[in-house]
Amino acid sequence: MSEPKPPTPTPGDTYKGWLFKWTNYIKGYQRRWFVLSNGLLSYYRTQAEMGHTCRGTINLATANIAVEDSCNFVISNGGAQTYHLKASSEVERQRWITALELAKAKAVRMQAESDDSGDDCPAAPPSSGHGGGCRNLEIQSTLRTLGSKVEDLNTCNDLIVKHGSALQRSLSELEGIRVGADMGEKMRQVTERATLFRITSNAMINACRDFLSLAQNHGKRWQKALQVERDQRIRLEETLEQLAKQHNHLERAFRGATVLPSSFSNPTLGSKGGVPGKGDASDEDDDNEFFDAMEDPAEFITVPADPKYHRRSGSNNSGISSETGMDDQSVNFDELSLASNPESPQPLELEPVRQRRTRIPDKPNYYLNLWSIMKNCIGKELSKIPMPVNFNEPLSMLQRLSEDLEYYELLDKAAKCQSSLEQMCYVAAFTVSSYSTTVHRTGKPFNPLLGETFELDRLRDCGYRSLCEQVSHHPPAAAHHAVSEKGWTLRQEITLASKFRGKYLSIMPLGSIQCLFDKSNNHYSWKKVTTTVHNIIVGKLWIDQSGEIDVVNHKTGDRCHLKFAPYSYFSRDVPRKVTGVVTDKDGKAHYVLSGTWDEKMEFSRVMQSSKGENGTEGKQRTVYQTLKAKEIWRKNPLPEGAENMYFFSSLALTLNEPEEGVAPTDSRRRPDQRLMEDGRWDEANAEKQRLEEKQRTVRREREREAVKASSPEEAVTEDSINDSPLKTDAVETGTEANEVSDESTHPDNYQAMWFEKLDDPVSGETLHVYKGGYWEAKDQGSWDACSDIF
What we know:
The chain is α+β, with helices and mostly antiparallel strands.
């Protein structure tokens, strides 16, 4: 039986919003759209379902509403229906509780009135005074008048129908009579009935005019009365919010009295400003939030902060006010235009910005038996599995690496920060933002050929340009270098280690990422987390990110520990959750970050920290008292029709767009990738095999030269082995373009074209660093040193 659909809500009695509803232990809490109207609480999966599909409805007249904790509450109607709900904050929960209680009281009252409607003498409503009684009498009198007018309209309507039918019959009879004695009698009857019809019509018109006049006159007065009631309701809601804050503060003060020392619970007593004013300490605590630490993540309680807090903290605690003022300055820095910054270069107005494409050909719907290919690949390295382009997306791994710059604005803002701790927040948000493009991207990028490059020149558009090069094929490694006019440099070397486990595919990025800022000389480094592709064989593919990242500032010793929570069927947390804490070199927490890697991130300044209750695993949790959270990053919406274009972002759509002047080794010139983008997959598969065979031939020739250079006596023996059919078949079977045999006897003497391998003295890591020359070669159009890899 389908669930009942709620009635259409009226504007004055409706409360709508998002809540988290407990579904089961497999899916946990799910976000649902709830609508409270006419004493009924209904929910939908999305707002778009309100017009056609209701997922459930509960009648509040017989329901019981119970509060579990700060954000959770339960609605039950005696066991038949029970909703376990969770709001996003304590204030939001209190608003829902208030709206539900008011709706329940109204529903109970309406039900009682409907039960008593059969009595001959209904009880008069109680009045609170003489004015209330007069108003009730006036309303009842007006309703009786309107009711009588409606009855008059009904009577006139019946008479019009009756007289109209009689007039129609008379006219019909008039057409069939003979001219003579009957003519006068029939004409008289028609005249009488027409007169009655006219009189009745005039009476109905007059009754309608009176009814409309009364409705207009009293409608204005009722609208004013309704507005007064609405204003009073808003004032009551604000009062309830204040009471909820005070109640929450009293509970925390009671719990914290046994945890915090008296000198630590009120830092204003030890300041040089003297004794604080009355109520300052309570107001300060009331404006803060409490976050659980990373040791044992739990639900966060959020209470909006009072804007006056900064002024109060400035008079009570000079240290906090100076840091808070620093935040305000940095925020104002972010809002300044680049033209007002004397250090930023002025754009060239004579050269218009290039208009880049916003669409690519739609993805063809080709059928492929996945299991027939993957069943022989379990346990193998992903780079050693021969894959058709059906599993790919028309981008190379170098282009996917360049997609990390989708949210380059975060690094632009970080370069302007005066505080290294706040700069750490922006760098941490940048590390999280690089995963936002992967949430729907289940296609495998093309493995780059050795020596393949990709340039992303956005100097005129965005103030940066980057270069990627495949510097090794065993293990497959790519180097990336990006530099911005805003004063930051990003470099990374990524090696992918992947394993196919039958049901899922794990991709473990090896190597490090480094970010350097020119103005402050801050040097940051971090590593990537593990990416897992689920439901490889059966079901819909979906991607998850899990693991931990430590972003380290090697100059100041600051550190940000980010935790990517893996998806769990039994977890009640928000999916794809990311939390983090920014600490200085002494381990003192200064900022708390929270959000999801596919939507947004927020950060909050830590004002106090203390040890709280033990967590679920016996670890003592740290309670962070913070200011109101601010949004630091939000994901850009996907372009229209992205589901038919491999779920590419706006930047990804432009990465494979043909450009003039790029190197002959650029990924845009790769033929199999271009054929796949155009939808010619059969030709792309054939071209992919040709490129792989060419790559293997070049590699064997390079190995022969390495053998001759190292040991001339072994050259003949090695050449005979390499030229034998057995050796050739072994190398060619089941390899990708970047594969080399694990049993290679001699090392490869390949040297990267634009990068060189160096030891970083700051981080102590060895990585490929850009050695220069690419952009100069592009300006001169001189690509003679580039190999013919395509």
